Write a sequence for this structure.
């Protein structure tokens, strides 16, 4: 079973003026990184200002 999880806090200045725009920007960044993924990984999510706002994880269980 494979699992993808994302958790993000949206209560700092980067989200104040355009919360949905910042979330969309972050999700596009995550999607770009997922395009390159071929193994499990765990990453920090950073807002446009460089602040740590969460984590995402891709867990792939493969049977060889």
């Amino acid at each position: 079973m494979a699992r993808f999880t994302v958790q993000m806090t949206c209560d700092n200045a980067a989200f104040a003026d355009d919360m949905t725009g910042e979330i969309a920007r972050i999700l596009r960044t995550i999607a770009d990184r997922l395009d390159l993924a071929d193994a499990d990984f765990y990453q920090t999510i950073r807002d446009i200002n460089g602040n740590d706002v969460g984590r995402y994880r891709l867990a792939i269980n493969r049977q060889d």
About this structure: Residues 29 and 45 are 9 Å apart (CA to CA).
